[in-house]
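Review form for a predicted model. The reviewer records the input and the model, then writes brief findings.
Reviewer: anonymous (R2)
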Amino acid sequence: MFTINDSLIAANLVNLSKKEQDDLIAIIRGKDKRQTRFAKEILLSRCRPMVEFVASMYKSSNIDFKKLVRCGEAALLKAAETY
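Model under review:
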């Protein structure tokens, strides 16, 4: 199974260790809304370079770059919630 640690950390796009990734995902899946929101903000800020990198590969598709980034961030959060 592919995780964000596999090749993207090696490419310095995401600077989360496996433990940090697992801890953030556990908090996101938890019941405390305040901690969940904070963990989501951390996850997004730490993974933003990866999301922007992937979105940049679709620049020629005539879709707004900011919209691609927003969709990528939404997909990242959805994946974290169902991980």
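Findings: Residues 28 and 38 are 9 Å apart (CA to CA).
Further findings: The mean pLDDT is 80.
Recommendation: see findings above.
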